[in-house]
Automatic annotation (TrEMBL):
Cofactor(s) this protein cannot do without: [4Fe-4S] cluster
Alphabetized InterPro entries for the sequence: Aldolase_TIM, Methyltransferase_A, RNA_MTrfase_RlmN, rRNA_lsu_MTrfase_RlmN/Cfr, rSAM, rSAM_sf
Protein's name according to its UniProt entry: 23S rRNA (Adenine(2503)-C(2))-methyltransferase RlmN
Cellular compartments per GO CC: cytoplasm
Natural source organism: Fluviispira sanaruensis
GO-annotated molecular function: 4 iron, 4 sulfur cluster binding; metal ion binding; RNA methyltransferase activity
Amino acid sequence: MNSFFGTERKELEGKIAEIFGVPKAKLRAETLFRKVYKQNPLEDYDFSELSQDVSAWFKNNYLLSVPLEISEIQTSTHDGSVKFAIRLKSDGKWVESVLIPERGRLTQCISTQVGCAQACRFCQTGRMGLMRSLTSEEIVGQVILAEKWRRENPDYHVASYQRISNIVYMGMGEPLDNIDNVIKSTQIFCDNLGLNFSPNKVTVSTVGLMPALDRILNETKVAVALSLHSPFEEERSKVMPVNLRHPLTHVVETLRKHALSGTRSSFMIQYTLLRGINDSEQHAQALVSLLQGVGAKINLIPLNEHEGAAFRRPDLGRVYQFQQILKNSGMVATVRLSKGRDIQAACGQLIKNKVKS
Ligand code: SF4
């Protein structure tokens, strides 16, 4: 059986064309997508618009369930964020996903891998190492499950939103280390007959793996965010070992190339501020020089400390000083005081104690 929620519409159309012929394949694939996604995924579907043979073939060949289940939830008493521990049915491993309500938007942060191979030194997930990558249906399934959970739990603050409005690939794992399944999942999210997210509401965050960075920029229209964290090569390598294989200057040059060619007009740059490590005036000025011509919007994130962390969070005065230097140089810079800190759901805090090897 194929998983419907891991299938792109053009793929389904191709299969229908093989079995029933080309002439009505496009229309039939459109009807199936409309029926499944517009009628609350995971509930009863009405396929009566399709001929009996197509509908029977579809039901016999496609699974209309998701290969994961919510096992635990935690709710932030501060801001209403909800963290899900999600069990992957195929092997019992776990990932986490977070719903974040904020100023009229409901954002879901999703995972792409169990653990992560990149070992960024400020990140809890990086301490787990990589266990495996998620399939496209496991990535898409996180959003479908969260929407279903919202429908069934109207008393939670996140249920008061009309729908999940934004998706960020900032959970467990490095998305570009699972590039095929990540690209496929973005196409399913952004299909106007599927989950119908606008590409600018979907953000893939990366440490900058090449050549996958070029692929996501060339093959999709979703927003891309680079986790930068230091403007100096040697220092970045100490905090993010990936920099030894994919040096910062090369990665930023790639963004600049795409900004100049018009593939994207801007990029989000994520910069986690670590006290006494990367929060000086010199760092702010070097960041301004490095990012010339990139169309950068810098998101400053004071470190979310966790048990055993080697770094400390700077005080807010220092954070706002850093921001001011960037703004004085004409950069767009915002400060993100992460949501969900009280439930260990903020950036760099996702780790599942129940993860099984
Ligand atoms: S910050 Fe992202 S890329 Fe780095 S270790 Fe954590 S999950 Fe992996």
